[in-house]
Design goal:
This protein is of the alpha+beta class and about 475 residues long. Among the domains are: about 150 residues, 2-Layer Sandwich (Beta-Lactamase), CATH 3.30.450; about 160 residues, Heat Shock Protein 90. The strands form four sheets. It has a five-stranded antiparallel beta sheet. The chain has a five-stranded mixed beta sheet with strand order 9-11-12-14-13. A three-stranded antiparallel beta sheet has the order 10-8-15. α6 runs antiparallel to α7. The longest helix has about 50 residues. It starts with 9 loop residues before the first helix and ends with a strand.
Length: about 475
């Protein structure tokens, strides 16, 4: 089974590249420090051992050239020499003929076969004990002997253990401090990139302003420059798509409107027996005109096309007043009454998009409201949000169908003929382009449907344009 490779973050890569060499260096430092400290400690103990041997050598004496070699070491001095709380001290003095003249017989057995020319140190085992031995040759006209001094290694082992603990403890503290500084240093060094990511993440889909590069490290500026070029190309592509859709909308609506007008005129001149067929043709053209308008509105409200749109501060109450006359003919044809309840509701948005959203909400309400009923169109503010809602007295929306109604071309069972299933899809697209949301609520007295669209509110009278 092949394991999928997961890319490592830049922070993790930097820490990994720095931590491994740092740990290797610190590990080598531990070994070097330990060996250096042990070597210095051993040298100190060895000098003390050599001092004892030289003191014994100074106590050797002989009366004449042929006289026996003697060690002048009083019992009190020998007791002081052997007095050590941690280790046992042994010594032996061997003359030129290889005879032990003083000291421990067991140690004399470790004497070399020939006289050394300088003090020599070696490790030995005696009676199951580890010893450190120094050999000193003393040779003059009257004295020719070898002095051996040995001691067990308890003090050395204890000192070595303390050195090891000290070296490991101090280096572990150094490692922990270095790793902590490294971690927080890398985090601090990459903070400008984190801030850049946060700024980009907080942007809306309609914001194509260049990324500021003043606070970005030099290494990341090529990335920021490439991102700015990409934003510029996306903005240009969105504007081109918006221009194309606007031109297409105009080119399609004009001939369809002319065709419907010609059918209306022809209906007056044709014989009565063909008028029903012409009426059906005129209704089909009207539905086609409505469908084309909704398709273009849905395309123009998509994120790709709406990204290059200019958002301006406007009031939803003004939108209701401007659109009121547009809905009267449809309401009268269905025998419905329209009621408007405007209130100040400032928002930042594209007026034509919000107008298209309101038109679809009202068309749905008129299509589903029973003859003689009331359709109410309201707007206002609630805390920090502005809202607009359309309420009808129709059959209502089952909760199970609420989410599916936003799917393009979906029409629930029992829908009146003539619809395209795009109205609420357009409503949601427009709401999302304005960072809003759509909610269904029961109508007054538990009858009908109230569709509320909520937007972030802006300060009334604020003047700002943003690329959206």
């Amino acid at each position: 089974m092949r394991l999928a490779w997961r890319p490592v973050s830049l922070r993790g890569r930097l820490i990994g590249l720095l931590v491994v060499p740092l740990l290797v260096v610190l590990a080598v430092s531990v070994v070097v420090d330990y060996r250096t400290a042990v070597s210095l400690t051993d040298a100190t103990f060895d000098r003390a051992l050599l001092g004892t041997a030289m003191a014994l050598a100074s106590r050797l004496e002989s009366d004449d050239d042929d006289g026996p070699l003697e060690l002048d070491l009083p019992p009190a001095a020998e007791a002081i020499l052997r007095a050590d709380e941690a280790d046992s001290v042994l010594y032996a003095v061997i003359d030129g003929a290889g005879r032990r003249i003083a000291g421990d017989e067991a140690l004399a057995a470790l004497a070399p076969s020939r006289m050394p020319g300088a003090p020599a140190y070696r490790d030995a085992q005696l009676g199951g004990r580890s010893l450190r031995v120094v050999e000193v040759a003393q040779e003059s006209r009257l004295v020719k002997a070898t002095i051996l001094v040995a001691e067990t290694t308890h003090k050395r082992e204890q000192a070595t253990a303390r050195i090891l603990q000290t070296v490991i403890g101090s280096n572990l503290l150094l490692i922990a401090t270095a790793l902590g500084l490294l971690y927080f240093g890398v985090r601090l060094g990459l903070r400008p990139l984190d801030e850049l990511g946060r700024q980009i993440d907080q942007r809306g889909a309609e914001d194509f302003r260049p990324v500021p590069t003043a606070a970005i490290p030099a290494e990341a500026r090529p990335l920021a420059a490439a991102l700015n070029r990409l934003l510029t190309r996306l903005e240009a592509a969105g504007q081109a798509q918006q221009s194309f859709l606007s031109a297409a909308a105009h080119q399609l609506r004009t001939p369809l409107a002319g065709l419907q007008t010609q059918l209306d005129l022809a209906n007056q001149d044709l014989p009565a027996e063909v008028r029903p067929r012409l009426t059906r043709l005129r209704d089909s053209v009207a539905r086609l005109n409505h469908f084309v308008r909704q398709m273009l509105a849905l395309a123009r409200s998509s994120p790709e096309a709406a990204a290059a749109m200019s958002f301006q501060t406007m009031d939803l109450s003004d939108l209701l007043e401007d659109c009121a006359s547009d809905f009267l003919d449809g309401a009268l044809a269905r025998g419905l009454e329209l009621a408007f309840e405007p209130a100040p509701a400032p928002v930042a948005g594209a007026q034509w998009l919000l107008r298209e959203m309101l038109a679809n909400l009202v068309d749905n309400a008129i299509a589903h409201g029973p003859p003689g009923s009331l359709v109410v169109i309201r707007c206002g503010t609630d805390d920090t949000e502005a809202w607009i809602e359309v309420e009808d007295a129709g059959p209502g929306i089952p909760p199970a169908e609420a989410e599916r109604l936003f799917e393009p071309f979906y029409r629930p069972p029992g829908s009146p003929p003539g619809g395209s299933g795009l109205g609420l899809a357009i409503v949601r697209e427009v709401a999302e382009r304005h960072q809003g949301r759509v909610a269904f609520q029961p109508g007054s007295h538990g009858r009908g449907t109230r569709v509320r669209v909520v937007f972030p509110s802006v300060t009334k009278g604020a003047c700002q344009d943003s690329e959206g």
